[in-house]
Amino acid sequence: xRKAGQLGLVATRPPPGVAGSRVLLLGGFQVVDxxxxxxxxxxxxxxxxxLALHGRPMRRVLVxxxxxxxxxxxxxxxxxxxxxxxxxxxxxxxxxxxxxxLRIARGVRVDFRESQALAHRLLDAVDQPxxxxxxxxxxxxALSGELLPDWYDDWVLLESxxxxxxxxxxxxxxxxxxxxxxxxxxxxxxALAAVRADPLRESAHAALIRVHLAExxxxxxxxxxxxxxxxxxxxxxxxxxxxLRKLIQPP
Length: 251
Prior knowledge:
The chain is an alpha+beta fold. It has 11 helices and 7 strands.
């Protein structure tokens, strides 16, 4: 079972039955209650994932239309009622149901939203101090997961691309911060996570090359540049930019 995310804020007064509950969207969908995974029907999974993804109240008509866009409004409402009826126990308490809207309960932790908050803290690090956990192996892991992989709904794909861009920028910043702190192993891990997420992204390779140079490993920096150069030539028939080339050229 995939490990739950550790970062982020927890509601101080969660509703009864919700404390210790988590919805995991990164790396695959899971609902965890006190460390135990909760089984859900597919329709209920999609409902909970949508509400967890948005984190704010959503009109019932929007929820039904988003989850069942290919059917009539009446059938979409019927499917929504069915999905809600299949929620039981802790999972039922994890959804706040009102006459006009639905939302994920405020005490439920969502790994995606915690990782989003982490990414924004890293990107705003110049303007606000970071927490100790923001510069940790757990932070790297929190930024390394894809959002609902193998889910191909339009509402998932749009959010997935936004998350990919956000986490790539955050991983590159994290690599620089860790390198500046002399934590070169963690810095390289963060940069490599960005490279794995998008092997053709030059700024990710630049972050890794900078880590090698900061550690005075010029041969590693040159090797990384040549790997990236070979990849670009093979995949796109182009060369790295002059800015990247300058990194490995002697002063």
